[in-house]
Amino acid sequence: EGSEEERPVTGGDDLLQAFLQMYDRCPPGTATPRTFIAFVQTYQKVYREKKQKISERFNRLQAGVSKLTEAKELVAKLRSKAAKKSKLLAEKQAEADKALSAITTSMTAATDQKGDMESLKSATEKENVLIEQQKKVIEAQLAEVEPLIQEAREAVGAIKSESLTEIRSLRAPPEAIRDILQAVLLFMGIMDTSWEAMRKFLAKSGVKDEIINFDAHRVTPDIRKKVEVLLKQKEASFDPKNAKRASVAAAPLASWVTANLKYAAILEKIAPLEGEKDKLLKFVVSAVHVTTSPAIID
C-alpha cells in the first residue's frame, strides 16, 4: 500500500470501496485477483491519460490567455500613439475580447470535464454489470437447449434411408407424421405443406444433412409462432412415443423440431438484449468523444 502522496488516482476510500464492491459482485470463480488487478491498472491508466490531456489543455489555455493579455496591452499602446488607427484598433479589440471569451469558456469546460469523467466511469460500471447479467442469461438458456439440439441432430443422422423411403411410399400418412413434417417444412421456409410437398422434400438428395446443418438463426418470429401454434394444437403428434409408433424416422424429427423451436425462442429473447447492449456501448463511446475533443484555440 502506498502513501497518500504516492496515489496517482484521486477518489479516496469511496473509489476503493467501489472497486471492492465491483469485485464482490462477480460470480465466484469467474474473477481472479489477477483479472481484478488488471482491471484496476487499466482504470488507473485511463485515468492518468485523461488527467494528463486535461492538464495539457489547461496549460495551453493559460498560455493563450497570456498571449491575449499581451495583445490587449499592445492595442492600448497603439491606440495612444495613433488615433487615426482607432477603427482598426477597435476591430482588434473586439477580436481579442471574442477570443478571450472563447478561451474562458474553454477553461470552464476543461474544469467541468472532471464531472464528465465521473459520469463516464459510472456508465461503464453499469454497462459491465448489464453485460454480466446478459452473459448469465444467455449461457443458462443455451446450456439447456444446445445438448437437445446436438442429440436431435445425431438422431436425425441415424435415420436410415429406408425409413424415409417408407414414409414417402405412404398414400395416406398418419396424422403424427404429417404434423411433424409440416413443422420441419415450415422451419425450412417451405410454406406448401401438402403431402406431395412433404414427399418431394424427403426425396431430395442430402435431405438429412440439410436438416442436421439447419441454423435456427434463419427462423423468423412469424415462422416460430406458426410452428409453436402447431405444436400446441397437435401436442400428441410430437410426443416421442406417439411419433415413434407412427414411424421410426418420425421420432428423431419430432425431437429436432422441439429443440429448434426452443432455440429459436431464446434467440428472439437475445436480440433485444443485444440492442440494449449496443445502446450502452454507443453512449460510452460518445462520452469518451466529448471528454477528449480538443478545445478550439485561434
UniProtKB/TrEMBL annotation:
The UniProt record lists the keyword Heme: no
GO CC list: 9+2 motile cilium; axoneme; cytoplasmic dynein complex; microtubule
Pfam families associated with the record: MT
Keywords noted in UniProt: ATP-binding, Coiled coil, Cytoplasm, Cytoskeleton, Dynein, Microtubule, Motor protein, Nucleotide-binding
Domain Dynein heavy chain coiled coil stalk as annotated: residue spans: 60-272
BP GO terms, sorted: cilium assembly; cilium movement involved in cell motility; intraciliary retrograde transport
InterPro entries: DHC, Dynein_HC_stalk
Superkingdom of the organism of origin: Eukaryota
The keyword Signal appears for this protein: no
Cellular compartment(s): Cytoplasm, Cytoskeleton
One GO MF term attached to the UniProt entry: minus-end-directed microtubule motor activity
Cited PANTHER family: CYTOPLASMIC DYNEIN 2 HEAVY CHAIN 1, DYNEIN HEAVY CHAIN FAMILY PROTEIN
Family, per entry: Belongs to the dynein heavy chain family.
Protein name: Dynein heavy chain coiled coil stalk domain-containing protein
Biological source species: Plectus sambesii
